[in-house]
Every structure is written in structure tokens, then in C-alpha cells.
């Protein structure tokens, strides 16, 4: 069982005014794990960064300076994933990141293909969030896709491109006044509203994140 966990996360913006809500939103989404860590006396940190390159850079630095901590890198996949997570980042144009020495594949976690994919896994949670927003088009959201039969890994949602995911959210909010979906303005709050169990069912990569962290703490969630 580890004594300390740090999740290095992309997408928090570039100021404390946006980083703090993003940290809080992800903490709410991962609440079962936060509770498990607290019960076991495990130090728990979610560390958001403005961009993915920044998250990777500080993740690498932290591996050298905090050797007693279980460090996790959590970034968007951006594209369909056909390799291991580290291999995906190594071969993706624009990243081309080489896994630091000594890390295992579980320390690289991807939101496939993007964090917004998680929102579409719980359309009821998104509708609840926007229920008082005039002009919100709930019919633009897809119904919860059926679970695939084993051994298929990628679900309907994880096979959806980032452009398509963003298009759906844009279409659902395009007629709202001042409430068109934006990652910085809405992402953090939506993370705290969607049901992690529903996301885990529809997005195997999210389930992998939960299982990896639970295993590190010597528990199940």
C-alpha cells in the first residue's frame, strides 16, 4: 500500500482562479477514492496544470524529487488509442513523450478520447447541471450507449472523436445565453455532477484509473 498519491492532471487553466475549481471538481468525481485514501491515512493530491506538456514535465520532475510518492499522469488521449497508454503518447504527433525510467504503464492514465467524453457517459448528469439554463437542448445529447459484449474494449463513446464529442456539447448549448460549453468555465463543475459509476461502465479507461488507484491503496471501489 502506498503512503502518498499525486495525480498530475492537464486542463486546469493558467491561474489559481481556474485551477482551484478544477482540482475540486476532479476530487468530487474521484470521491470514492478520496474517501478510501482518507480512511487509510494516505496523502492525496490532485495537481492540475494549464496544459498537457506542462503536466508531463512536472510529472517527470516529481518522479525525481518525490520518490516515495505514487505519481499518476492523467491527460486526454486526444485521439483513438490502439497501443498501451505510454506508447500512445510516444507515437502521437505533438506529444512524442518517452516514459520516464522506472515508471509502469499504470502510472500513465488517459481520458479517452477527452475529458468531455466522460460527460456524455452520463447525459442525465449533464441535463441536471443545465436544467435551469434557458435554451439548453437536451435532445442533442446521445442516450447512454449499450455496453459492448466482451472481449471488445472500446465502447461507442471511446471510439468517438474529440471533434464529435465537442460538436455534441456545442450543439446542446449553442442556443443558451452566455452558457455555451467551455472546458474552463464548465468542465470543473460538470466533473462534480456526473456519476463516476456510469462513466466507468461506459469508458473502460476511466474504470482503469479507478482500479489502478484503488489497487495502489490496497482496496477496491
Explain the overall architecture.
The protein is α/β, with parallel strands linked by helices and 221 residues long. It folds into two domains: 4-115 and 201-216, no CATH class; 116-182, no CATH class. 44% of the residues lie in helices and 11% in strands. A four-stranded parallel sheet has the order 2-1-3-4, sandwiched between helices. It is globular and about 50 Å long. The model is unreliable at 149-153 (pLDDT under 50).
Task: Lay out the secondary structure.
Elements lengths: L3 E7 L5 H14 L1 H9 L3 E7 L2 H14 L4 E7 L8 H7 L16 E4 L3 H6 L2 H7 L32 H12 L9 H9 L4 H7 L1 H13 L5
Parallel strand pairs: 1-2, 1-3, 3-4
Helix pairs in contact: 1-8, 9-10
Helix segment tally: 10
Largest sheet: 4 strands, parallel
The percent range for helix content is 40-55%
The number of domains is 2
Please count the beta strands (DSSP E, at least 2 residues each): 4
- Strand content of the residues, in percent? 5-15%
Give the overall average pLDDT.
Answer: 92
What is the straight-line distance between the termini? 15 Å
Overall shape:
globular
Please give a quick description of this structure.
With 221 residues, the protein is an alpha/beta fold. The protein has helices at residues 16-29, 31-39, 52-65, 85-91, 115-120, 123-129, 162-173, 183-191, 196-202, 204-216; strands at residues 4-10, 43-49, 70-76, 108-111.
Amino acid at each position: 500500500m502506498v503512503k502518498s498519491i499525486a495525480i498530475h492532471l492537464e486542463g486546469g487553466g493558467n491561474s489559481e482562479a481556474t485551477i482551484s475549481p478544477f482540482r475540486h471538481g476532479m476530487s468530487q468525481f474521484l470521491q470514492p477514492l478520496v474517501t478510501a485514501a482518507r480512511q487509510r491515512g494516505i496523502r492525496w493530491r490532485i495537481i492540475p496544470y494549464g496544459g498537457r506538456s506542462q503536466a508531463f514535465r512536472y510529472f517527470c520532475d516529481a518522479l525525481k524529487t518525490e520518490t516515495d510518492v505514487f505519481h499518476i499522469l492523467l491527460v486526454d488521449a486526444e485521439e483513438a488509442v490502439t497501443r498501451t497508454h505510454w506508447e500512445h503518447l510516444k507515437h502521437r504527433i505533438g506529444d512524442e513523450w518517452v516514459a520516464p525510467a522506472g515508471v509502469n504503464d499504470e502510472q500513465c492514465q488517459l481520458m479517452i478520447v477527452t475529458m468531455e467524453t466522460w460527460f456524455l457517459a452520463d447525459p442525465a448528469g449533464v441535463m441536471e447541471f443545465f436544467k435551469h439554463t434557458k435554451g439548453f437542448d437536451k435532445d442533442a445529447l446521445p442516450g447512454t450507449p449499450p455496453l459492448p459484449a466482451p472481449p471488445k474494449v472500446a465502447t461507442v463513446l471511446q471510439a468517438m472523436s474529440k471533434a464529435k464529442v465537442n460538436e455534441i456539447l456545442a450543439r446542446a448549448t449553442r442556443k443558451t445565453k452566455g452558457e455555451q460549453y467551455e472546458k474552463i468555465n464548465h468542465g470543473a463543475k460538470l466533473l462534480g455532477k456526473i456519476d463516476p459509476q456510469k462513466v466507468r461502465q461506459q469508458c473502460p479507461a476511466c474504470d482503469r484509473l479507478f482500479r489502478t488507484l484503488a489497487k495502489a491503496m490496497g482496496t477496491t471501489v
